[in-house]
Amino acid sequence: MSVSNLRPAYKRVLLKISGESFCREGESGISMAELSSVAEQIRDVVKGGVQLAIVCGGGNILRGKQFADISQQIVPSTAHYMGMLATVINGLALQDALESVGVATRLQSAIRMEGVAEPFIRRRCLRHLEKGRVVILAAGTGSPFVTTDTAAALRAREIDADVVLKGTKVDGVYSEDPMKNPHAIRYSDISFREVLEQNLQVMDAQAMHHCMEHKIDIIVFNYKKVGNIARAVSGERIGTRVSTEGRAS
């Protein structure tokens, strides 16, 4: 979808992308080729007039929870802080990738580190968005034992986002893992309660509850397909929409 054809259905969007967005399939670390592709999609969305905040994961570098589970020398809270710092590294990489394609950005961190990022201040974040800057929100909430999914839902509430876009490797929410069961059903629409009752792996339960209580829809889609971020922002029916209403009768 070209910038000239973009007709945004939402004014302010929170985009959640995982650490997998920063590396090639089956690898870890940061691939600037992969990141450049995402940056170009984001550029097109911003040029279409959308106010965009981004929360990125850090699993390509380190997953705090998994690290805590396998390490006997590092306590869980420390492992979670390490995971939060990984999101700052990703945020710095994303910031440079975006600015290399002409997108003005600000990196804000929930853990204070003024040498590389602004502290997250809600009013300052909103001002940046209003000025057309992409705000990358790193370090989760600044507290351990909170996932980046929950951080994304909380930030979406704080900045009054119209929608949460959850970029994944699959094209929506399925009844089962489609990689394991080729007959799994893909939902085009589903309610928050159905997701929670069926324990579908969309976002963690805390994140789902925050979005449900504040009536912020979540769109789960395949960000790997070029143009899909713009399609989601324009309201085109791609992926799966998670909402209060759920499936049409």
What keywords describe this structure?
249 residues; alpha/beta; Carbamate kinase; nine-stranded mixed beta sheet; two-stranded antiparallel sheet
Entry summary:
With 249 residues, the protein is of the alpha/beta class. It contains eight helices and eleven strands.
Task: Please characterize this protein's 3D structure.
By secondary structure, the chain is α/β, with parallel strands linked by helices. It has a single domain, classed as Acetylglutamate kinase-like (Carbamate kinase, 3-Layer(aba) Sandwich). The chain is built from 8 helices and 11 strands. It has a 9-stranded mixed beta sheet, with helices on both faces. It has a two-stranded antiparallel ribbon with strand order 7-8. α1 links the parallel β1 and β2. α2 runs antiparallel to α3 and α5 runs parallel beside α7. The radius of gyration is 17 Å and the shape is globular. It starts with 11 loop residues before the first strand and ends in a 6-residue tail after the last strand. The relative contact order is 0.16. The model has no long low-confidence stretch (mean pLDDT 91).
Task: Lay out the secondary structure.
Blueprint: E1 12-17, H1 32-47, E2 51-56, H2 64-70, H3 76-100, E3 105-109, E4 118-119, H4 122-130, E5 134-138, H5 148-158, E6 163-168, E7 173-174, E8 186-187, E9 189-191, H6 192-197, H7 205-214, E10 217-222, H8 228-233, E11 240-243
Parallel strand pairs: 1-2, 1-6, 2-5, 3-4, 3-5, 6-10, 9-11
Antiparallel strand pairs: 7-8, 10-11
Helix pairs in contact: 1-3, 2-3, 5-7
